[in-house]
Amino acid sequence: MGSDAVSEEVLEEGCYYLMDLGLAADAIASRFEITPARVSALAASYRSKLKTGEATKGEFDRVFWEDVKKEAEGDVKLTFLSEKGFHHAWKSELQRLDGPVLMSIYESSKDFLSADPNQKFLDFPPPKGYDPLAMDRELKKAVELIGELLAEKWKEENASGQMNGSKT
């Protein structure tokens, strides 16, 4: 098994929890690059281990696989900056914020990146292993995504403003 290969135990646990969370075997198979039949077999194997006590269900494991499911569905976890410091949130959580709050987060994060003398290196791929600019890369990703969210909110507000304006 190569260094990038996933262990059988992790596959079993993942298939079990993701199916338990309502993800279809086809979707799991696509993400894990295995067949749907193998997904079902791995989930059944883990279920059997739970029954015999060879494995135990844990809250940490469930939360971990819920997060994996969110990411698989396109909801990403972001690191950003506000006037109170660094924070982490899911994209779906940020989408619920209003425009002024999002703009404040966007500006704080962008200001931090602009003040960083290493920002020019963010356009290059990270080195293998340790990445000294990992936090900056996360902030850059958040700034881009928050910018997209702001653009969506602006379009929604303009569309609703035009609709409200046309009613009068």
Description:
This protein is mainly α. Helix content is 64%, strand content 7%. The protein has 7 helices and 2 strands; from the N terminus they run ααααββααα. The chain has helices at residues 8-20, 25-32, 36-52, 59-72, 91-95, 99-115, 134-167, and strands at residues 77-82, 85-90. Strands 1-2 form a two-stranded antiparallel sheet. A hairpin with a 2-residue loop joins strand 1 and strand 2. Helix 1 crosses helix 3 (36-52). The longest helix has 34 residues, at 134-167. The radius of gyration is 21 Å and the shape is globular. The model has no long low-confidence stretch (mean pLDDT 88).
Layout of strands and helices, then pairs:
Blueprint: H1 8-20, H2 25-32, H3 36-52, H4 59-72, E1 77-82, E2 85-90, H5 91-95, H6 99-115, H7 134-167
Antiparallel strand pairs: 1-2
The share of residues in extended strands comes to 5-15%
Per DSSP E runs of 2 or more residues, the count of β-strands stands at: 2
Overall outline: globular
Helical residue percent band: 55-70%
Tally of separate helices: 7
Spatial extent as radius of gyration: 21 Å
Instruction: Tell me the major beta sheet.
Output: 2 strands, antiparallel
The CA-CA distance between the termini, in Å, is: 68 Å
Query: What number is the mean pLDDT?
Result: 88
Q: Please state how the strands of the largest beta sheet are arranged side by side.
A: 1-2
Structural class computed from helices and strand pairing: mainly alpha
Succession of helices and strands: HHHHEEHHH
Which segments are poorly predicted (pLDDT under 50) over 5 or more consecutive residues? none
